Amino acid sequence: MAAKLLFVRVLRNTHHLQENTIIHWTTWLGANLVLGALGFIIAEAVPILNYILGLPGSLCFAPFSLIFPALLWMYDFQAYRAGSVSRKMIYAFHACIVIVGLFMVVGGTYGVAVSIKQAYASGLIGGVFDCADNSGTVS
What we know:
Elements lengths: L1 H9 L11 H24 L3 H28 L8 H38 L17
């Protein structure tokens, strides 16, 4: 997504944005390679990145992929609550999806918090601005 944004901004108001030219492909591949390399460097340089990504993942994935779509479906198909048995089961299935999503939010957030606490306790993650050796090699 970042590469697409960069690509469109760089080639805005040029014919290269829509045409198959060398500049078009060089810009597109270059943006992907540079941003991929930057992402790799950041992921390797920040030892706590997996926890930092896990927290918003647990707080955002379940609501946006499970809870909200199921609630919107339940709102659109309210008549299914009073319909036939199969329609009631479909409605109940969507209610179960909401419950599973809520479990994932709470359980995921708790799991990440416990993992962060254990990582600090075990010394896997040092203190803030700690200059200790984090290379994983034994001297």
